[in-house]
Amino acid sequence: MQFKEKTICKNYVYKGKILSLRKDDVILPNGQPAIREMVEHSGGSAIYCEVDGKILLVKQYRYPYEKEIWEIPAGKLNIGESPEQTAIRELEEEGGIVAERVEKMFDVYPTPAYTNEVIRIYRAVGLTKSKQRLDDDEFLHSQWIDKEQVVKMIYDGEINDSKTIIAVLSSMK
Fold this sequence. Notes:
Layout: E1 6-9, E2 12-15, E3 19-27, E4 33-41, E5 44-48, E6 50-51, E7 54-62, E8 67-71, E9 74-76, H1 83-95, E10 97-108, E11 119-129, E12 140-146, H2 147-155, H3 162-170
Parallel strand pairs: 5-11
Antiparallel strand pairs: 1-3, 2-3, 3-4, 5-9, 6-7, 7-8, 7-12, 10-11
């Protein structure tokens, strides 16, 4: 038995510049009708950057959680931009570092129950110091932190961001 659901009608409730909200009519694998609420998102890229045992993290206020959060640099894909270009752009914007190239680590589905967002995680290679270039509405602090300390922050619950946890712990293999 296949578990695919068939979309009958996509009903947009809201269309915004970052996300759209749908309330779709679907048919379940058993033939019964159902409703699926979904957030459409263009996706994003994140970039893991480590030099001499230190990891680049950014700390920024995240409105949904009403607090500052430690993360690896990341951002949403712009129209016409590849995920690799997004990762390189975000590293320079948020961290003031230019990567010669990036290597793919993972694709992550942050919340598969209600969004189609995919975060692509890359590793930065060939680094050159540049200048931080924050967006007008972006306020954050970047910092190089010893890898051992970052791991401790994860296990102590100071870092809760899933993409950051995945990138850091997978770099330890």
